[in-house]
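User: Please fill in residues for this 344-position structure.
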């Protein structure tokens, strides 16, 4: 069986996903694409030698009989309408983060999915598929460090484009930390505080960089998260969990240790594409496999909603400087499923 996939928005990550479906993964084929930049869409279909139809817009693509399932990789504010349309059309949809740019938008998606009566939406929180994070979660779940007390996390980008707005540190970048730590801990956040350290001279005037985000969970664990999107030296994701009986750290990606000219050195990656390549592969293969079975295995629309509510609270805490409570609706039974996707 093969899943015929339509991709909406073929910019950076849309192209990456198309490449992996075409060259690396099995049981999926890109048969349809659309992008508001039609010239770019044509150029990419040609460059990839894809036998894919280029659609006028996302809605026509979703409605098409030749499309079994949809990938939404357009700009964040457009995600909600396409996810809702895919649910309406009863088609599995993989949506890159954010699921929607507001908590209300996420709830509209949750309600539409529940009304349909079956899980159709997976959100692109790929870190749950990263082998390092999975190993860390296993250590935690097995109690090897005892009760987790503190997580020290850092999300460092080498640099960001001029189009990166002040809120994006939270809604575009830190949102991965929001998802992965509640998944690691099997816990939910109750409050957040945001602190602005001395600002780097590398950041644009409108952007406070770095930031420290301190989230507290229901069980009392504190996540001390650094966001630094002009760190200059590389793309660096760190996570250290301090427990009652020990400490566990996210492994760095494997890299040759070079001894030369009286120096020992290792390379540091510079972008998310390479850092999480294997995780994106696993994530999309899992989505293809489970879509063919009529299931959703990975992060759900509910996880998208929790991330949106938490991100809103982070933004409020950043603006006010106050510790801000995080109020979630009660999780519907419909979404009572494992936090851990099965191994692909
Ligand atoms: P991008 O700007 O490179 O690509 C977006 C593409 O969507 C562009 O080609 C644009 O013309 C097209 N587009 C925008 N609105 C459209 C619409 N209504 N219909 C059709 N095409 C439309 O952006 P990028 O970096 O690829 O990000 C896309 C999404 O993926 C964002 O939501 C971003 O947050 C997410 N993302 C997730 C990552 C992850 O690690 N999971 C990594 C990078 C991006
Ligand atoms: C980007 O959109 C991503 O999702 C990357 O994973 C993240 O590291 C980066 O900061 C975001 O801009």
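Assistant: Residues filled in for all 344 positions:
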């Amino acid at each position: 069986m093969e899943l015929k996939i339509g991709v909406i928005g073929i910019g950076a990550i849309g192209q990456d996903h198309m490449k992996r479906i075409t060259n690396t993964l099995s049981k999926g084929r890109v048969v349809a694409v659309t992008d508001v930049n039609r010239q770019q869409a044509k150029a990419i279909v040609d460059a990839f030698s894809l036998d894919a139809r280029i659609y006028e817009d996302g809605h026509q693509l979703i409605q098409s009989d030749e499309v079994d399932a949809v990938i939404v990789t357009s700009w964040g504010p457009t995600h909600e309408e396409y996810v809702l349309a895919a649910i309406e059309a009863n088609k599995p949809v993989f949506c890159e983060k954010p699921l929607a740019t507001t908590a209300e938008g996420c709830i509209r998606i949750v309600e539409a999915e529940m009304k349909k009566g079956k899980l159709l939406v997976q959100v692109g929180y790929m870190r749950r598929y990263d082998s390092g994070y999975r190993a860390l979660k296993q250590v935690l779940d097995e109690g090897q460090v005892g009760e987790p007390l503190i997580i020290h996390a850092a999300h460092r980008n080498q640099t960001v484009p001029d189009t990166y707005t002040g809120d994006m540190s939270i809604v575009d970048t830190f949102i991965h930390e929001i998802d992965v730590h509640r998944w690691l801990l099997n816990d939910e956040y109750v409050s957040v505080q945001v602190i602005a350290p001395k600002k780097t001279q590398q950041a644009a005037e409108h952007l406070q960089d770095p930031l420290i985000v301190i989230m507290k969970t229901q069980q009392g664990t504190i996540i001390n998260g650094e966001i630094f999107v002009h760190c200059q030296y590389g793309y660096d994701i760190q996570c250290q969990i301090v427990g009652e009986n020990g400490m566990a750290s996210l492994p760095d990606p494997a890299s040759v240790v070079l001894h030369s000219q009286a120096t020992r050195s290792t390379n540091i990656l510079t972008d998310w594409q390479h850092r999480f390549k294997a995780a994106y592969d696993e994530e999309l293969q899992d989505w293809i496999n489970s879509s063919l079975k009529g299931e959703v295995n990975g992060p759900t629309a509910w996880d998208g909603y929790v991330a949106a509510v938490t991100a809103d609270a982070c933004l409020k805490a950043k603006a006010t400087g106050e510790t801000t409570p995080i109020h979630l609706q009660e999780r519907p039974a419909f979404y009572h499923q494992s936090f851990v996707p099965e191994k692909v």
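For context: The chain has a mean pLDDT of 96.
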